[in-house]
């Protein structure tokens, strides 16, 4: 079957479908199961051993490992952590925020490009977020969260908006304002969390989404 990315964001009945696709709920379910287990362990309900930091040690993204300054715990960790970090979170609130955005924007993306390409977008955005963090950050601590993939969905949506406005001859100012607002929100949160926000991963994921919106929208994809 041959499909093509649209040149504009979805409108009308296509965005009125009830409920997010099953594969998105599965992803959220996996992340939730991991976070619940880690939270229960941290609270002492699963024995005396706290599993959170061991889980972070093997699954989080570590910039020193990426840069070669620290020895990986297991073979292939330098590559595997580009994806596994997205399934780990720092608490229920962190998980909830990413899950809500993932389900809502993921539902809209799936209605336009299908489940397979939405899943590919999430994968590539997570990897892009990890690569950007590895290249731009100097932090020695673990980087976790699905926000790189979430920002891939945001980048995809804004890339579609750009194409639609450009093709229709509409002003780009609303889009530019939205992008600047997104950057400002990241800056504010970076200050609030005393530098604990992985803006580099957000940027990497967003760029992947934007490129996919622009590039794949004009090329046919065979599935």
UniProtKB/TrEMBL annotation:
Q: Which GO terms describe its molecular function?
A: serine-type endopeptidase activity
**What GO CC terms are in its UniProt record?**
membrane
Q: Which residues form the Peptidase S54 rhomboid domain?
A: 78-217
Q: Which one Pfam family would you cite for this protein?
A: Rhomboid
* Topology of the protein relative to the lipid bilayer: Multi-pass membrane protein
This chain's protein is named Rhomboid protease GlpG
Q: Carries keyword Transmembrane? A: yes
Residues in the signal sequence: none
Kindly list the biological process annotations in GO that this record carries.
proteolysis
Record key words, sorted: Hydrolase, Membrane, Protease, Transmembrane, Transmembrane helix
The answer, when asked if Cell membrane is one of the entry's keywords, is no
The record's subcellular locations are: Membrane
Major site of localization recorded for this protein: membrane
**UniProt cross-references to SUPFAM superfamilies, sorted A to Z:** Rhomboid-like (SSF144091)
